Give the backbone structure.
Amino acid sequence: MCVCVCVFFVVSLFAAAILQCLCNNGAIPLYYELAIESTYPVAEVVTSMMMTVMYSVLPLIFLVVNYMTAKYSEPISFFST
């Protein structure tokens, strides 16, 4: 039986986080351009405004839902033993 052990290094964690940010944030302008080009008869301003509004409102909705569900449960205390 083979046991695989993953060794944790802080340097490899930082390298993976930086690589993920580069790949993820580099694709965002491509997605914007793809959405704008795929809705050609509509003006670019309308498409980009709608996408910006969605990118701003959707996280707000998730935060409000999270706040409403966490309000009725017991909060996590990191200082209690």
In short: Residues 43-70 form one domain.
